[in-house]
Specification:
33% strand; binds 2-acetamido-2-deoxy-beta-D-glucopyranose; 20% helix; Immunoglobulin-like; single chain
């Protein structure tokens, strides 16, 4: 028994080094891509925790069914298995065994991200601070959607992710002295939105997450519209204002009301047409062009799912 749990712990440690990694924010759905062995027949998905205990998350009986403690949280959609509404207790190693074959374990880390808001075009700094002195930092990295944004090696060399514009992202040059690996993104755009993960591989490992939200730029034309020169002053009789208001509202209900009704009907019809279309997910969550087919990992599928893997799926 002792040997078995030792083996399990060893397995856990090894998988931690070699396995796939999924990082997800609290409350999001986590998507596991099913390998072809796991689409039919029999199988199980176990969660192995740090103390080597396991829990059945779902079982395959030609279709995937949730385990006893996950009855409303596991859902198969096509080629993937979704664990809805991730929480911290979901952390651990997810082990698929299908049709007698033990498949790769996947490590899940769940984060409570801090929040950073920035306006489009502004620079944004995503905080990541942790003691580095006396901790022999081996490496550090920022990731998003399972893809490396910026990687720092032990000698201080920096490499960038494939689709990353290196002139837009940086960490402080004195990161070591200042214990500061915060990521600065220049002139943020809508497509920079998302959850970013900071991992520092050192004596005491550090991991944290930041959610970047980008406020759309307010069109400058609207704010620069000249004010009418004949603005009524507060000294004007309030009766006059009331009469004006009454007239305005009467005119509005007579003219605008029917117009709005007609427009509403048109819009409803358009909405119906859209529903019959294949997919109409809202931007910025549905921009397949942003994620080239050969990028690492799996992508945002909808507002509710953050889906990442650490593996190259090409
Ligand atoms: C599974 O997903 C489908 C489609 O997203 C949804 O309609 C269904 O309610 C989900 N089931 C569970 C148990 O969450
Ligand atoms: C990278 O960013 C810089 C500065 O924002 C910009 O001038 C340049 O065009 C970008 N390069 C690419 C390939 O997008």
């Amino acid at each position: 028994m002792k040997t078995l749990s030792f083996l399990c712990i060893l397995l856990f440690l090894c998988s931690e080094v070699f396995g796939k990694l999924i990082q997800a924010p609290l409350g999001d759905g986590v998507e596991f891509l099913l390998s072809k062995e796991c689409l039919k027949g029999r199988g199980r998905l176990n969660l192995r925790r740090k103390d080597a205990s396991t829990q059945l998350i779902a079982s395959l009986e030609n279709v995937w069914k949730p385990g006893p403690q996950h009855s409303h949280r596991v859902n198969q959609t096509g080629l993937s298995l979704i664990l809805e509404n991730a929480d911290l207790n979901d952390e651990g190693l997810y082990e698929f065994t299908c049709n007698g074959k033990y498949l790769e374990a996947i490590k899940l880390e769940v984060f409570v991200p801090s929040e950073v808001d920035a306006s489009e075009g502004e620079d944004a700094t995503l905080p990541c601070r942790s003691v580095t002195a006396g901790q022999s930092v081996k490496s550090a990295r920022w990731r998003r959607n399972g893809n490396v944004v910026l990687h720092l090696d032990g000698t201080g060399g920096i490499t960038y992710g494939e689709d990353v514009n290196r002139s837009r992202v940086s960490i402080p040059s004195e990161w070591d002295r200042q214990a500061d690996l915060s990521l600065t993104i220049k002139r943020v755009q809508q497509q920079d939105e998302g959850v970013y993960y900071c991992d520092i591989d050192k004596w005491e490992k550090h991991r944290s997450a930041v959610r970047l939200r980008v406020r759309p730029e307010v069109p400058t034309a609207a704010s620069s519209t000249p004010l009418p020169t004949t603005t009524p002053t507060p000294s004007e009789s309030s009766d006059g204002i009331w009469i004006a208001a009454l007239i305005t509202s009467a005119v509005t209900s007579v003219i605008v009301g029917p117009l709005a009704f007609l427009c509403g009907r048109k819009r409803k019809r358009e909405a119906r047409d859209e529903e019959t279309g294949a997919l109409s997910l809202p931007d910025p969550y549905w921009k397949p062009d942003r994620y080239p087919a050969c990028a690492k990992g799996v992508y945002f599928r909808s507002k509710r799912f953050t889906i990442v893997t650490g593996q190259n799926i090409c």
